[in-house]
Amino acid sequence: MEYWISVLSLLGIHMLMALSVYVIMSTGQVTFGQQGFFAIGAYLSAFATAMWGLSLTTAFILAGLVSSLFGVLVGFPALRIRGFYLAITTLAFAEIVRLFFLNLTYQRQIGDRLIGPDGAHGFRYIDYLVQHQITLYKFLGIIYLIVAIFAVFFILLGRSRLGPAFKAVEEDEMAASMLGLNITTIKLSSFIIGAFIAGVAGGLYAHYMQYVGQDFFGVNIGVYFMAYVMIGGLGSFVGPMLGATMLVGLTEILRFLQEYRMIFYGALIIATVIFRPRGIIDEALIFKIKTFLKKKAFPLTAGG
User: Which residues cross the membrane (predicted)?
Assistant: First the structure.
């Protein structure tokens, strides 16, 4: 049972990271740097509960807000570039964050232990869950409650003016500008939202693991987050969540292959790019589903 709680907990966190990448890609931007915001959220939430005595809810909100601030700092320069150059810029940001925490040493004596980040040894004793008798089963519920909150947020986003504006900018930035859309505001908004989600996910991860180390935030994890969206699809926020489920599940199924499982990941990504360039759940599939549902609903409407 503990094994499945572990798998489902990590899946929920990875779903959030998939959503954080998706919201940025939904405006036509490319990011390989979400692990940087993930790291900021993880460390900051650890500071909040382990060293400052704040509640878990406050820690997660603080992690999201501070990560959003860094989203603004990264998003503004990113407005001038796109494509490959934007991907490299976001990746460089994530590496700067990782190296910063690799060299960060700030500890305090709390009780009989030194609490705080210790450079390459990471941030240990993030034991808020133990102190407050929150079982991993209960924490699993917290994780999926947050996933559900963000899912509702994306549903509301799609029904607001901002959702269609994101899609318009992704499809044709120049045409969107001619229609009067503020491209700067839209792109920056996507970075802020994506950074907030990643920060909250980082906070969840730190408290689930009860330890944070800079090795959690390398380039490879950024590639995973991007792969979730590429495979799951850009047609709906459900796509990245599906992509995360598929790849996390594949990781567990192919665990016996160790590093060789990366071959399967690569093959899956290549197949997706060739046969489903917009991912499994793309706009065409969403259109077919909506058309099918309308046809099913029409006889009921006519008969009522």
Answer: 6-25, 60-79, 84-104, 136-158, 179-205, 225-250, 262-281
